[in-house]
Amino acid sequence: MNNHSLKIPVFIPLIIGIVAISFSSIFVKWSDAPVSVQGMYRLLFTLIMMFPFVWKQVYLLKKITWHEICLLFLSGTFLALHFLFWMGSLKLTTVASSTILLSLQPVFVMIGAYIAFREKTSKAAIIGMVVAILGAIMIGWGDIGISAKHIQGDLLSILGTIVVAAHMLIGQKLLRTFPATLYSFSVFLIAVIVFGIYNFTLGISMTGYSEQEWGIFLLLAIVPTVFGHVLFNWLLKYVTAATISMAILGEPVGATLLAFLILDESLTLSQWSGGVIVLAGLYYFLQNTRKQKNSSPPAPVKTPVTPGPMVKKG
């Protein structure tokens, strides 16, 4: 983890990423296409946009180990499952309910980081995490339904949260030696293949959609994927997966507000209050995580898997 080489304050790219991913649920709600088709074209269009920036790095894939190949495959598969579960949940429940459950991600990341990397979190940072999660709960509390349809959507959102936590932890490990753009390109490609197999196996049509649908697929690629997921993958070189997942707690705030303005979904006083609490908890967590990092000795830099200079992330 190379925190000290980031030339701009970390909150700037974090805010950009939060705003970008907040639009994801709006675009998904707008589309009538199956979520597996939305996810596939979302990532396929992203790959096309990334290719001019990554093609010179493709040769590096020849040097990776079988262990790293397996990790890339798992990361891409988990990402596809995340989109499938979470985007599917948006078809069954409200934006607030789905994004609130997605905000449980830091819990799974923190547990996974401790098991996989023995990565500890300070008590102060844990307090910030708990405060932010409580605020997120306030946002979605009034919308969490008790109908079978809402319960199914809630379960899908939880499953999506678990698998994206696994995806981020694998990314944290691989990005110690991988250029960020190459890592993102590789896992997106794997996820597109997984979606393609899924659609073909279930007989889901991958063509014949309206111009409006293709426009939504493109928006999903540009806004929440490039300026959201790709940006967060880049930041994993400088901050922990737990920090990124905490930043994503800002998504319920942005997504709920956008749903109120654009989709006419109701927004209660507790949800407004919860948004303020989320931001306060997020700020407290990030401040204490940074203090903990600065007070710790720098970790030894691992030797890259390939010779020659590595390409900077982003």
Automatic annotation (TrEMBL):
According to the record, the segments passing through the membrane are 7-28, 40-58, 70-89, 95-117, 124-144, 150-170, 182-202, 214-236, 243-263, 269-286
Q: Where is the EamA domain?
A: 14-140, 153-285
Which PANTHER family does this chain map to?
ACYL-MALONYL CONDENSING ENZYME-RELATED (PTHR22911), EAMA DOMAIN-CONTAINING PROTEIN (PTHR22911:SF76)
Q: How does it sit in the membrane?
A: Multi-pass membrane protein
Under what name is this protein listed? Answer: DMT family transporter
Q: What Pfam families would the database entry show?
A: EamA (PF00892)
Q: Which family does it belong to?
A: Belongs to the EamA transporter family.
Task: State the residue spans of region: Disordered.
Answer: 291-314
